[in-house]
């Protein structure tokens, strides 16, 4: 047992001697200098839609308005847009201070005055609104001013209304695709 303890002590002395030699061989520091590193980031004004994490030139389908199925003759039928990803409106988050606008353009089946849903050559007019009471119609080409951006997203709800207005419509799946533009 004494032999083992002697070896551990000798090994400990050897390690301590080597460590002291390594530190002693390092050059002494005579002084120091301090400096800086420049770090920068340029942030451009931007807006993102429906919780996107980046800005894209084409933002794809922002949501959909799906009217409930109706018989061939029906009165006013209302629906609200459901945003892509959920939510009751289009979410627009912009750099603070910007004054974004949202323009609702024409649909694939529209004339210069009305939006139309179409199926196999048959059409039925529909209307878009900015309020749930459907008193503020959004006309083709209308610009919606969203206000001045803060760190909180704007919510842009869109509501729809369709009616056969007493006409008997052929059965079918009536659709339209409306173009929209977000500008800032």
From TrEMBL:
Where is the signal peptide, in residue numbers? 1-30
| Keywords on record | Capsid protein, Signal, Virion
InterPro entries per record:
Spore_coat_component (IPR053167), Spore_coat_U/FanG (IPR007893)
Question: Where on the tree of life does the source sit, at the highest rank?
Answer: Bacteria
The chain positions of domain Spore coat protein U/FanG read: 35-181
Task: From the record, give the transmembrane residue ranges.
Answer: none
Q: What is this protein called?
A: Spore coat protein U domain-containing protein
